[in-house]
Design goal:
This protein is mainly alpha-helical and 153 residues long. Helix content is 78%, strand content 0%. Helix 4 packs across helix 5.
């Protein structure tokens, strides 16, 4: 019993920190994508992809507490209700969509990054993309990979 409580003491803060980080990242993705939705002529889907990734992340964050509660209730052997099964199904579908959209986002970003030249004059060329969108997108890719690897541990 002592080893189980020690494992909870170690992993609970990690789960809480990851949950807060993914929630904050999702909010930032939505805000930056919405504010700069017309500021990327190279590929207009980059800011839209940020909005979609952030929305899916918020959905997963919102159902995070329910799945943790269900896992705790599932330990006593009781059957899950239909609402719990629906939330689990919704999380599974959202996870698959999030993974697919993330792959799409990486492809779009790589296309943008190839044609991107730092230009601080908005709308001056067809190759303009707001530097915040490009740099933040790169950060989102790195952060999602780090979070995914942390969850694999």
């Amino acid at each position: 019993m002592e080893a189980k409580s020690c494992a909870i003491c170690i992993f609970l803060p990690l789960v809480i920190i990851l949950s807060i980080a993914t929630f904050a990242l999702s909010i930032a993705e939505i805000v930056i994508g919405a504010v700069h939705i017309d500021d990327c002529q190279i590929n207009r889907m980059l800011p839209i992809s940020l909005i979609v990734l952030g929305s899916i992340g918020l959905l997963l964050s919102a159902t995070n507490g329910a799945s943790a509660r269900d896992a705790r209730k599932g330990e006593d052997g009781a059957e899950k209700s239909s609402a719990q099964n629906c939330i689990a199904c919704l999380r599974g579908i959202a996870g698959l969509v999030s993974f697919g959209w993330f792959i799409y986002f990486v492809v779009i970003f790589s296309q943008v990054k190839t044609d991107y030249t730092p230009n601080l004059t908005p709308n001056s060329t067809l190759f303009y993309c707001h530097p915040l969108v490009v740099n933040f997108s790169f950060g989102v890719i790195i952060a999602n990979i780090v979070i995914f690897l942390a969850l694999l541990l």
